[in-house]
């Protein structure tokens, strides 16, 4: 139960001017206006995280029924991460079923915005659940998500409270994050404490800091007189239970940033426990805690830590096994027990391991590879997130634009496999198989996804076009025509931007030896993109010729129905026999690449008849003017629409002048003008702007 009398500093921050303004702005008693529900919600949330104080005895009693009272960092993080959702991919869509081979996949909600990292996150969650001892090394290339994972772990640490000692004399919470467990961790009483207060003995190994020992001595080892206990939530802002260290100067090791240092401003000042004494060097009350102490009981995040001077690494090696380290200036033994997360890229990590004294690091490290995704669909989700973050998602983006960038990124990351075993497969084919697709093209060698994974090089996904490179290219694509007042992205601008990026990249971004490979891969993508543009333009122009397309549709359907019913038909007063019916149908089907014509005709007839039956049911009981026309549009049934488009592509050149016109006024007949207008409407409906269409048409000249 909380007592009164908690010092202001431990219960709430001093009011800022902004806080005072907020209080005034929300004092609506004189207007009758209810306070903002959002502000009320935020206040309620903040209220649940207010510190709670209790006596040492109260804390011990709480331990009997509340495991959280003595939980360590791994317990709290495990609880914050939560139980995973178990996804049976046998029941998933076809693409996911192929990617995961129908296996069960675990997904953790706090990491849901990380794409294609299920294995990585499960690995990390298991490591934490099993105690998180040692050093967790997240190894991966720039932009692969290492820092984001570490940041999520920091935020998760804030969700679960920790119990810390507070000095009754000064009202100060332990600067070394001492927990009350250190008061009862004496081996002589550990078994008795475990039995009486239901605390497993594995938790009774906490080291006392000199700050605790000094106060115990001052109060004749009366714990209840020296301390009370505060239940408090870790905070990144306050660096309480969480600490992050960015890389420092490689030449000068900043050891004090980790272990702390004496506070010269306090040396010679009055001792807070005894006014007759002054503080000296080595006194825990004249000490500035380092990152180890600030993160004790929580999370320490060392960003790109191995870029620091190697001497800094040595400070970790013993503490991660012993649970304490020696502070600066003779301050003594300081507790250290937290999740240690260090991020690095593979070249730096390999260089560290080559050092003569790397065995101790290697034995204490748990390495998790965080590579780039090889799934284009997941890569595109990352791009969408980046576009939204930068406010670019509201600008025009043509279809296939992000797909193209994702394909380029993935194919640069692919390796030829162990002993070159995968070199026989084209990169863009492998990329589509990795994505859970079954690529078209019987003449090409198409691997199975399990083969790609089994024969993959160990470094696959750890090199290649980075997410940050992709972000710069996307920004450059939108800026490519900004001087013309146009900010948009399409596949042609993307290819243009990628070419410029490759050409201008320095060796750190794209090694010179890799540039020819990148350019070759991009050329292949550009050639396939031109073919896609041709199909899009052709389809839009054909769709503009609705009248002829509908005639073709109706005629094919009449002939197909006759074939299915095994009946002849009469056309223009003449009987059309079965041989002529088959010849007509086969002529259209061959142009569309239909390989099983009889089954295709049956499916078309069945599909159209179902649509006519649906229309009849919808019209039942309605007045004639309210009824839906009993007409099936030629492009309603896509398999047949594909056949009709193939038929029309044979004489497209005769209508090419329609789309080349600058405006409909340049065309001769009303029908051509209608087709011109409809062509642009078709393109707009797909997401293309007029300037995008103009670029596409120029590409096809």
Describe the protein.
The chain is an alpha/beta fold. Among the domains are: 376-530, no CATH class; 545-660, no CATH class. The chain contains 31 helices and 16 strands. It has a five-stranded parallel β-sheet. Helix 19 packs parallel to helix 23, helix 19 packs antiparallel against helix 24 and helix 23 runs antiparallel to helix 24 (515-544). The protein is elongated and about 120 Å long. It starts with 7 loop residues before the first helix and ends with a helix.
How would the blueprint of this fold be written?
Blueprint: H1 8-11, H2 17-25, H3 37-48, E1 52-55, H4 56-63, H5 73-81, E2 85-88, H6 94-100, E3 104-107, H7 118-129, E4 135-139, H8 146-157, E5 162-167, H9 187-197, H10 210-218, H11 223-226, E6 227-232, E7 242-245, H12 255-259, E8 261-262, E9 287-288, H13 291-294, E10 299-302, H14 310-317, H15 319-322, E11 324-326, E12 333-335, E13 339-344, H16 346-353, H17 359-364, E14 365-369, H18 376-389, H19 401-413, H20 427-434, H21 449-454, H22 467-479, H23 491-504, H24 515-544, H25 546-565, E15 569-571, E16 574-576, H26 578-591, H27 597-619, H28 638-648, H29 656-660, H30 670-686, H31 690-699
Parallel strand pairs: 4-13, 4-14, 7-10, 10-13
Antiparallel strand pairs: 1-6, 2-3, 5-6, 8-9, 11-12, 15-16
């Amino acid at each position: 139960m909380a007592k009164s009398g908690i010092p202001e500093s431990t219960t709430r921050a001093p009011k800022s001017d902004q806080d005072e303004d907020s209080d005034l702005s929300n004092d609506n008693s004189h207007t009758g206006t209810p306070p903002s529900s959002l502000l009320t919600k935020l206040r309620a949330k903040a209220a649940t995280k207010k510190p709670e104080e209790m006596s040492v005895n109260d804390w011990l009693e709480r331990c009997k029924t509340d495991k959280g009272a003595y939980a360590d960092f791994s317990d709290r993080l495990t609880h914050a991460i939560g139980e995973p959702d178990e996804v049976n991919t046998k029941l998933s869509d076809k693409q996911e079923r192929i990617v995961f081979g129908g296996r069960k996949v675990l997904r953790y909600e706090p990491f849901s915005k990380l794409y294609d990292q299920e294995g990585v996150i499960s690995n990390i969650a298991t490591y934490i659940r099993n105690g998180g001892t040692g050093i967790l090394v997240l190894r991966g290339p720039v932009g692969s998500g290492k820092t984001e994972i570490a940041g999520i772990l920091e935020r998760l640490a804030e969700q679960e409270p920790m119990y810390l000692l507070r000095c009754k004399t000064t009202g100060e919470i332990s600067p070394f994050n001492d927990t009350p467990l250190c008061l009862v961790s004496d081996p002589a009483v550990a078994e008795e404490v475990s039995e009486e207060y239901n605390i497993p003995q594995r938790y009774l190994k906490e080291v006392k800091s000199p700050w605790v020992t000094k106060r115990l001595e001052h109060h004749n080892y009366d714990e209840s007189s020296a301390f009370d206990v505060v239940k408090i939530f870790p905070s990144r802002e306050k660096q309480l239970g969480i600490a992050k260290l960015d890389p420092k100067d490689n030449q000068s090791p900043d050891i004090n940033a980790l272990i702390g240092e004496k506070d010269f401003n306090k040396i010679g000042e009055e001792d807070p426990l005894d006014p007759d004494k002054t503080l000296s060097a080595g006194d825990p009350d004249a000490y500035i805690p380092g990152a180890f102490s600030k993160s004790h009981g929580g999370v320490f995040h060392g960003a790109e830590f191995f870029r620091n001077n190697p001497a800094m690494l040595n400070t970790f090696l013993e503490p991660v096994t012993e649970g304490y380290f020696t502070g600066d200036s003779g301050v003594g033994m300081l507790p250290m027990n937290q999740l240690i997360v260090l991020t690095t890229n593979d070249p730096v990590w390999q260089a560290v391991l080559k050092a003569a004294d790397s065995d101790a690091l290697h034995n204490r490290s748990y390495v998790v590879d965080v590579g780039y995704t090889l799934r284009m669909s997941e890569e595109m989700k990352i791009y969408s997130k980046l576009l939204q973050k930068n406010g670019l998602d509201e600008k025009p983006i043509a279809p296939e634009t992000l797909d193209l960038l994702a394909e380029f990124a993935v194919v640069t990351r692919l390796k030829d496999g162990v002993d070159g075993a995968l070199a026989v497969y084209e990169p863009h084919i492998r990329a589509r198989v990795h994505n859970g697709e079954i690529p078209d093209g019987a003449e090409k060698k198409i691997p199975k996804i399990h083969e790609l994974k089994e024969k993959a090089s160990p470094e696959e996904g750890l090199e290649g076009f980075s997410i940050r490179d992709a972000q710069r290219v996307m920004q450059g694509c939108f800026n490519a025509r900004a001087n013309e007042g146009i900010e948009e992205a399409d596949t042609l601008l993307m290819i243009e931007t990628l070419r410029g990026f490759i050409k201008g990249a320095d060796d750190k971004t794209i090694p010179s030896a890799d540039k020819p490979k990148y350019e070759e891969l991009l050329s292949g993508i550009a050639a396939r993109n031109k073919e896609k543009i041709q199909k899009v333009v052709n389809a839009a122009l054909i769709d503009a010729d609705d009248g002829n397309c509908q005639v073709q549709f109706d005629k094919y359907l009449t002939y197909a129905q006759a074939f299915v019913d095994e009946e002849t038909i009469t056309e223009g007063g003449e009987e059309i026999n079965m041989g002529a019916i088959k010849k007509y149908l086969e002529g259209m089907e061959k142009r569309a690449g239909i390989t099983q014509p009889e089954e295709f005709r049956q499916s078309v007839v069945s599909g159209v008849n179902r649509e006519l039956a649906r229309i009849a049911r919808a019209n039942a009981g309605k007045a004639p003017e309210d009824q839906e026309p009993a007409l099936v549009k030629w492009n309603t049934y896509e398999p047949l629409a594909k056949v009709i488009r193939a038929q029309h592509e044979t004489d497209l050149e005769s209508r090419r002048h329609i789309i080349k016109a600058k405006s409909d006024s340049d065309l001769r007949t009303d029908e051509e003008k209608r087709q011109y207008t409809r062509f642009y409407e078709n393109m707009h409906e797909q997401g293309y702007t007029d300037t995008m269409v103009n670029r596409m048409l120029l590409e096809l000249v």
